[in-house]
């Protein structure tokens, strides 16, 4: 399940978060993603994982 930015209306695949974060840090020194924020608008990302576990 992805992380969702309600402002950009964009999903970030959790499997790619580390890869994207590494690229952002390398290219832009952008640490937003590792803080749980959207790298574009800095809005806190929503974890869309369902909390219910039967
Ligand atoms: Zn955003």
Parts with pLDDT < 50 across at least 5 consecutive residues: none
Global shape: globular
Q: Note the gap between the termini.
A: 17 Å
H/E series: EEHE
Structural category is alpha+beta
| Strand order in the sheet with the most strands | 2-1-3
* Largest beta-sheet characterization: 3 strands, antiparallel
Would you count the extended β strands for me?
Answer: 3
Bound small molecules, which ones?
Answer: zinc ion
Annotation field: number of helices: 1
Commentary on this structure:
By secondary structure, the protein is an alpha+beta fold. It has one domain (3-47). The protein has one helix spanning 14-28, and strands at 3-5, 10-12, 46-47. The protein starts with a strand and ends in a 7-residue tail after the last strand. Residues 5, 7-8, 10, 38, 40-41, 43 line the site of zinc ion.
Short description:
The protein is built from one helix and three strands; from the N terminus they run ββαβ. The chain is of the alpha+beta class and 54 residues long. The protein has one domain.
Keywords:
globular; 28% helix; 1 helix; single chain; alpha+beta; 54 residues; binds zinc ion
Set down the secondary structure blueprint.
Layout: E1 3-5, E2 10-12, H1 14-28, E3 46-47
Antiparallel strand pairs: 1-2, 1-3
Bound molecules: zinc ion.
């Amino acid at each position: 399940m992805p992380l969702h930015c309600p402002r950009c209306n964009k999903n970030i695949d959790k499997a790619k978060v580390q890869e994207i974060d590494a690229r952002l840090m390398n290219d832009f020194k952008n640490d937003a993603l590792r803080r749980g924020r959207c790298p574009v608008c800095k809005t806190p990302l929503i974890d869309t994982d369902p909390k219910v576990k039967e």
